[in-house]
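Fill in residues.
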């Protein structure tokens, strides 16, 4: 028995000596991944706890002061810094590891994430061995997290909440009118303007070629400018407050379709604007709603279908 104790002792000593000899210095962990998205969108959502909750591979402790993102007995916290660099603290037991997440725009449509963490050196051979296994586990965590990030953020709908289609403008001729409303325009107000356009179009035997379109803008603290148009098959003479408008065809346009009331449509409108900003595009024309559902005949707003259009130019 004593012989085996002695042998075991020398094995442990030999192991610690080996660890001390071969596990010298700090341990640097480095990971990278390329994601099909923009840097600004990724930066914004990596700091959004609601977004993180949708892809985080571990659990979230929402009872702590500030949500803690937990994975394999380690806590990860992303700290806001700037668009290209985000510090990430990794905490486990009494240990705190400081790491850095770099956001590098590889090209207009892809971001390269680089994550580096350093396990500090120690002269304690037992601690050296512990650090070695800790670094392996943290490395596995980083691989797991990057895999989830890539899968989630490569889907455009997960970023903007919309399926965004790239199209070309096909309607070129419109009858148009506008009017100021002292409050946010009601359905009756909007469809009153549409009815006037339809009555005017019938005088000239003009047919509608698509759904009515709408743009609402805030003029000041109370007044809204409401613009309404009907796509038609030919031009008509302009009237007192009704105009014939033409739009160039084959212009790039973004389209997203949503189902719900005015709040849902407005939210989608702002998300499309955010998409354009993230992709550094320009809006050369007037964005608008296309009223697929006749809101004057359907009172249930949850059934309303609206298409949002933004003309764009890089």
């Amino acid at each position: 028995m004593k012989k085996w104790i002695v042998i075991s002792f020398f094995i442990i000593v030999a192991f610690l000596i080996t660890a001390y000899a071969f596990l010298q210095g700090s341990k640097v962990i480095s990971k990278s991944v390329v994601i099909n998205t923009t840097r600004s969108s990724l930066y914004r959502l990596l700091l959004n706890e609601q977004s993180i909750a949708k892809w985080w591979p571990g659990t979230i402790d929402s009872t702590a002061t500030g949500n803690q993102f937990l994975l394999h007995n380690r806590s990860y916290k992303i700290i806001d810094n700037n668009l290209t660099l985000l510090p990430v603290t990794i905490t486990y037991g009494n240990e705190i590891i400081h790491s850095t997440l770099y956001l590098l725009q590889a090209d207009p449509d892809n971001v390269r994430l680089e994550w580096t963490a350093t396990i500090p050196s120690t002269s304690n051979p037992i601690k050296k061995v512990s650090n070695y296994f800790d670094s392996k586990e943290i490395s596995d965590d980083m691989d797991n997290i990057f895999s989830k990030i890539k899968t989630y953020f490569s889907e455009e709908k997960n970023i903007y909440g919309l399926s965004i289609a790239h199209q070309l403008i096909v309607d070129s001729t419109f009858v148009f009118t506008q009017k100021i409303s002292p409050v946010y325009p009601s359905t009756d107000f909007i469809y009153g303007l549409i009815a006037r356009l339809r009555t005017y179009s019938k005088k000239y035997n003009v047919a509608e070629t698509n759904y009515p379109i709408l743009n609402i803008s805030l003029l000041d603290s109370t007044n809204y400018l409401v613009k309404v148009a009907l796509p038609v098959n030919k031009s008509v003479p302009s009237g007192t407050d009704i105009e014939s408008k033409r739009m160039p065809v084959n212009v790039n346009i973004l389209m997203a379709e949503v189902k719900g009331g005015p709040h849902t449509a407005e939210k989608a409108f702002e998300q499309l604007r955010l998409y354009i900003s993230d992709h550094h595009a320009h809006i050369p024309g007037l964005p608008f709603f296309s009223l697929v559902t006749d809101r004057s005949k359907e009172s249930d707003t949850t059934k309303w279908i609206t298409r949002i259009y933004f003309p764009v130019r890089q």
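The chain is about 35% helix and 30% strand.
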